[in-house]
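[retry 2/3] Aldo/keto reductase: previous attempt timed out, resubmitting with same input.
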Amino acid sequence: MTMLPVRSIGGIRVSAIGLGCMNLSHAYGETPSEAEGARLLNHALDQGVTLLDTAALYGGGANERLIAKAVMHRRGEFVLASKCVLDLHDGKRGLDGSPAAIARTLDGALQRLGTDHIDLYYLHRLDARVPIEESVGALVRAKEAGKIGAIGLSEMGAETIRRAYAVHPVAAVQSEYSPVVRNPEIAVLDTCRELGIGFVAFSPVARGLLAGAVRSDDYVEGDIRRNMPRFTGDNLRHNLAAVSRFEALAADAGVTPAQLALAWVLSRGEQVVPIPGTRSIAHLDEDLAAATLSLEPALLEKASAVFAAGTIRGARYAAPMQAQIDTETFADEELA
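[retry 2/3] Aldo/keto reductase: success.
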């Protein structure tokens, strides 16, 4: 097994780059076969990845079942993270942060994963109808029962993080973060540093925008980017001009755009761990190479400047999904 640099998220030691497993079962159109997904997961472990991130929502539980079948025989080699609250409730995607729903989702996840313990368990989104203290309380009871090891929060703002932390220490906060999406810089990153919480960056290559995967909005059926305003129409055409400038920076430095994006995320702090997702073993190897890159600070600052405030047009999510996001937004940010 290859060794990658190691970082700590809330006291949990993991590879500096983890793997987001979502797109092996969910969200970006046609999914790979089970055999292809299993090959990628095992290759990730062979290359030294020690953080696998899934959720009950992904593929309606299919992603958790894939991990169970593909790599749970190598359970000692990785930290297993999954999520609750955002799930299929009565067959429909939605939020339910009630303790009863959290308990049901967790028990289902344990069954799907074929284990009695998940190392890091996140509240996937804030259910505004339920006090965060009650939702965290359900995870505390799960921890006391030995079902989970550590508590995480996903896409939650600084005030919510502090309220949750007052109930029980939080190991990790997960939010979208890349040179394109900078919302955690408003307050969340500082809060995590202050409280000793790890920060897990999902979509660190901006849903493929910084990995050469988006050249037009001709997405396949089932690709969630079809409903994301910044990934379609005139917004996308405008945004690709900035992407082109980012790609030129990467080319001048002798790295790929995805590697520059990941190196940028890694440079934001020792408590920051990106979890890119991919279906391609070649792309995975490309991503993991970023963990050992040494890029000049001036280059990283230029990468930041490409996506200065106001550069990107279009909201991050369509209105229904944005309504589920608690992370702070910029004053001039488009929200729908």
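[retry 2/3] Aldo/keto reductase: Residues 233-253 form the longest helix (21 residues).
[retry 2/3] clearing retry counter.
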